[in-house]
Specification:
The chain is mainly α and 602 residues long. It is built from 26 helices and four strands. The chain has a two-stranded parallel ribbon with strand order 1-2. It has a two-stranded antiparallel sheet with strand order 3-4.
């Protein structure tokens, strides 16, 4: 959504005298009803940090480091941060702030042919917010359990433990630790496979409901309420991480774990998979392609310094990952010391890093309950920030597109947000059944791994073909430097293409531990993936269908920014906004063109 005022002089200069008058009148009518903005710019920065910094920094980054030979992963990770992470985040924030719209309208304006990418990013964010809140549910369950003495995963003297339970970790496939059994048999009550659905875990059901209530209370007032919450949720995790690091470094064996983390195994750098994993971690951690940060930046003031926010969000995100790496690997060193085995032989796998391995480390620490409560409360804060952002994408996009009918039907925006949260809660119920861990793994594999690579690729293609530097100069008075232009035009498209091709070639079906999903479940996974990806070709077909002319003329117009807006045949005054006046978006998209088409700086 573009403000037609002194903030965007380009429109009045290219519209011509008569159409400039229309735009100016529209701007005057909307001066007092412009898009909401952050109360303070620091609130957007903190919200962006909270969105980017999430549970993936605490478990996925250390896990990939561990699997890739420790310090060897840091080299490609930092390289991908510089040439992909920072430039692409800069690109997303620029588009969101310039267009002042959510990802759907922003990408439709930038490249009409690929307008489906915006819809796909909203779809993937909604799918992720459904199962991501389940991880927050687990964190709350562990948080409540941490007030018990002794900790319920501290020994094998519990009703849910099996005869194979052991208090000390081993590499034997016939035994399991107390923390593993608490996760599988107490919290999840895990079934043998996706074929056996089991029953609803009512404890998890109620905690999932509590999690969605927390989300709603934090975002129901829009950016005004979210902006206040992030002061705490974005900053408090660092207090706990630093406290955990100080404690862990004093434990015996911690130095061996930290050494494993920072000293590279150089031969691992020859593996292409390590480089692809590093790039994927940058995409997933910062949130490239999800539309969250683009939606949040649409609430910025038009002249905000985007580069400053880009650097702060991306650098603090990576700093958090590395800080979490020191915390986790110092605990690994302590565990290897207790078990008498090398750090490289510890059994670590995905989410189990947070909910199995680390809780096990607590049991041997002084004041175990205190550290457990602090750690799981930190996970709650990290998860809430990212969940805010994913729900906000859905809300922003639907309000941008259907503001009048939604307000007419729901009366208040708060009730509409409540409906979104309620639907997501209901769709998340399968994840809190006894089969839930398999549903969770299936959704995560086909969303966070399969779908996101396609979205990132098409988003880069859609935006990089346009003149971002001109838009930056209009907003901030400065063009992008040669490094960013080189990354946008050459480096990013090439690298993302290579990553996408490699991901397709090396694709592996979903699995959980040693359980391989049956073909019908894999088919369900592809349906989940297609729920977001399918909008890209559908959007392209629709654009080519509605544009006039021959096929070549349609293709040329579909690559022209704002071509769909120019096609609108409805006079601007026929679509009334609030109080009988046209909405801001209507002014730019519903002027009937009788002379030259409107030009934009994209």
């Amino acid at each position: 959504m573009m403000l037609l005022s002194h903030e965007s002089p380009t429109f009045s200069t290219v519209l011509g005298p008569r159409r400039a008058t229309v735009a100016t009148q529209g701007a005057d009518m909307d001066q007092q009803r412009s898009r909401p903005t952050w109360s303070r710019q620091i609130e957007f920065t903190l919200a962006g940090i909270g969105c980017a910094v999430g549970l993936g920094n605490v478990w996925r980054f250390p896990y990939l480091c561990y699997r890739s030979g420790g310090g060897a992963f840091l080299v490609p990770y930092l390289f991908m941060l510089v040439v992909l992470g920072i430039p692409l985040l800069y690109m997303e924030l620029t588009v969101g702030q310039y267009t002042r719209r959510g990802p759907v309208h922003a990408l439709a304006n930038v490249c009409p042919l690929l307008k489906g990418v915006g819809i796909a990013s909203v779809a993937i964010s909604f799918i992720m917010c459904i199962y991501y809140n389940v991880v927050i549910t687990w964190a709350l369950y562990y948080l409540f359990s941490s007030f018990q003495a002794p900790l319920p995963w501290q020994n094998c003297n519990n009703t849910w433990n099996t005869p194979n339970c052991t208090n000390h970790a081993t590499n034997s496939s016939y035994s399991s630790t107390a923390s593993q059994e608490f996760f599988k048999y107490k919290m999840l009550e895990q079934t043998s496979g996706v074929e056996d659905t089991g029953e609803v875990r009512w404890e998890l059901f109620l905690i999932l409901l509590l999690a969605w209530i927390l989300i709603y209370l934090c975002i129901f007032k829009g950016v005004k309420s979210t902006g206040k919450v992030v002061y705490f949720t974005a900053l408090f995790p660092y207090v706990i991480l630093i406290a955990l690091l100080i404690n862990n470094t004093q434990l015996p064996g911690a130095l061996e774990g930290i050494t494993f983390f920072i000293v590279p195994e150089w031969d691992k750098l020859l593996s292409l998979e390590v480089w692809v994993n590093a790039a994927a971690q940058i995409f997933n951690s910062i949130g490239i392609g999800f539309g969250s940060l683009m939606a949040m930046s649409s609430y910025n003031s038009f002249n905000n310094n985007v580069l400053k926010d880009t650097l702060m969000i991306s650098i603090i995100n990576s700093f958090t990952s590395i800080l979490a790496g020191f915390v986790i690997f110092s605990a690994f060193g302590y565990m290897s010391h207790l078990q008498g085995i090398p750090v490289s032989d510890l059994a670590v796998d995905g989410p189990g890093l947070v909910y199995v391995v680390y809780p096990q480390a607590f049991t041997n620490m002084p004041v175990a309950q205190l550290w457990a409560v602090m750690f799981f409360f930190m996970l709650l804060c990290l998860g809430l920030d990212s969940e805010f952002a994913m729900v906000e994408v859905m809300v922003t996009s639907l309000m941008d597109e259907f503001h009048q009918p939604l307000i007419k039907y729901f009366k208040r925006k708060e009730l509409f947000i409540l409906t979104i949260c309620g639907v997501a809660f209901l769709l998340g119920i399968p994840c809190v059944m006894q089969v839930g861990i398999y549903v969770f793994q299936l959704m995560d594999h086909y969303t966070a791994i399969v779908s996101i690579m396609f979205l990132a690729f098409f988003e880069v293609v859609a935006i990089c073909v346009n003149r971002l530097s001109d838009n930056l100069e209009e907003m901030t008075g400065k063009r992008a430097n040669i490094f960013f232009r080189l990354c946008w035009l050459i480096i990013a498209p090439v690298l993302v293409t290579v990553i996408l091709i490699f991901s397709i070639i090396q694709f592996k079906p979903a699995r959980y531990e040693n359980y391989v999903f049956p073909p019908w479940a894999q088919g369900v996974g592809w349906v989940i993936a297609m729920a977001s990806i399918i909008w890209i070709p559908l959007g392209a077909i629709h654009t080519l269908w509605v544009l006039p002319g021959s096929l070549m003329q349609k293709l040329k117009r579909s690559l022209t920014p704002s071509a769909l807006d120019e096609m609108s045949k409805m006079p601007y005054y026929e679509r009334g906004g609030k109080d009988g006046y046209p909405d801001i978006a209507v002014i730019s998209s519903n002027i009937r063109l009788t002379e030259k088409p409107i030009q934009t700086n994209f």
